[in-house]
Amino acid sequence: MLIETGVGSKRGSRSPAGAGLEETGQLLEALAREGIGPRDVDAVINTHLHFDHAGGNTRLEDGRPVPTFPRARYFVPKGEWEEAQRPNERTRATYLPENFEPLDDAGQVELVEGTAEVLPGVRMVPAPGHTAHHYLVELESGGELAIYLGEVAQHPLMLERVAWLSAFDVLPLVNLETKKKVIEKALERRALLIAVHAPYPGLGRLVLEGDRRRWLPLSSQGHE
Q: 1-113 is classed in which CATH architecture?
């Protein structure tokens, strides 16, 4: 299973102009270092379809985009899929058809509605705000919980300071309420949080110090 695919390599080593992302398009190389090939991946989860999270869903083959993982089911929130088909002036630069239409052509898309356990111990959970139909991913095993945040918070400081929001959130006040719920659950369950836009590896937990929240990186918890 793979959660999200990053910017991808179709547009070269840099992301689309203005995004400020470099060193992209290295997903397959990173997987290969772990002994994982494209045909070994049997499930890909998309929290949403913005180019920096879904660009690696496809790759170029003979000049045309095809699914990067030919044996995988690509799980996509149903509302997000529909939204990406009809982008507006604000979203058309980030919903790029070449990142998702080839998946549908290949019959590899599975649309998700509501909270759904898409694999054993793996739940896709609605977390609207960054987009209207954005999801997060919960991973549960042995009574422990990890939460893949997607774009609920772009930086751990946004979990410490709940009112800090991103200009890229389509529905910022909705995301504010989503974030409150995620924070409450993270503290209650002492969940491991996966913050994908944080400095690598982006793993940590929220702890309470008095009445204030603090992000505790995994390396600060006795792990390397």
A: 4-Layer Sandwich (3.60)
